[in-house]
Model the fold of this input.
Amino acid sequence: MNRSLYRRAIVGDGGGGSHAPASPSFLVPNMDNVNGQLYWVQSLATVWDFLEHKGCIGKTNVVLHKKDEPSVLMIMPASCKSRYFEDGRIYMSKKIRRRLSKYENVPGLMVTVTYDPKKVGKREAWGSFGKDIRRFLNAINQYRKRRGWPRLQYLWVVEVQRGTGYPHVHIFFPNLRWLAPLEIINGNWRRGRANVESAKKVKISNCAAYISKYLRKMKGWSDLHLALLWSGKCRMYGFSRGFSAKVEKRESEWERWQIVETEHREQLEKVLEEGGYTVENSREKGG
Done:
C-alpha cells in the first residue's frame, strides 16, 4: 500500500501530482481546524502502522505436523484466525456459534449507546469504548444490586456509525423486560445517548447469528476504523460471565512445527514436498 495514496485520500491532493491550495479556513488560527488536522495526521500514521502489521500477518504461515506422522504437514495462514481478514472472521463466527448455542429464540431488551461528537473526539471514542461499556454496565449493575435485582446477562457488539465514523455499541440483554429508568441509563452513559428498545420489539432468534452478522459483513468498516480498533487493542464484541457455554476442547492431532513468512504459499508447499513431506490441504480440514 502506497503511503502517498493515503496522504491524498486523507490530507487532500489537487490531482495530477500537484497539491490543491489550502482552504482559506485553514489559514485562520482556529483550534477546531488545528485539532481536525492533528486528528487526520495521527490517523494517517495509525493506518500506515496497521497496514504494516496486517501485511505481516498476511505473510505468516504456521506449519503443523501430525503428532503420530511427523512427515505429514499442514500449512495454516495466520490470517485464518485474525479478525482483520475475512477467513479469520468466519473462524470467529463459527467459534461464537458453538459457545452461544443455548441461546435460541430468546426475547430481551436492546440498548444502543452512541457518542456525542461535541463531548468526545473520534479517536478518543475508538480508544475507550471498551472501557466505557464496562463502566456503564457496572454502574447499571450497581443500581440493580441496591434494589435486590438480579445481575445482568448481556452480549455487546461494536459497529461503525454511518455518517460520523464513530463507534456505537449494541447491547442485548436476554430474557430481560426491565433494565432501569431511562434517566438512570442515560445518566450513567455520559458520553452521548442511549436508546432502549422494548422487549416487545426485540427478539433475536439466535444470539450467535446476531453477532456473527456484524463480524462477517462489517459494513462501513474502513482501514482507518480497523486501525483505530487495532491501536486501541479493543474487542469487537463481548459478553458477561456465564453468558456463553464452555466448549470442551478436543485434543488436536496436530502440533506446531515451524513458522514461515512468505507470500508464495504454493512455492512453500513445493519445497516441503520436494523434501519428502506430504502437505495436506488446510481448507479441507476446516482451517
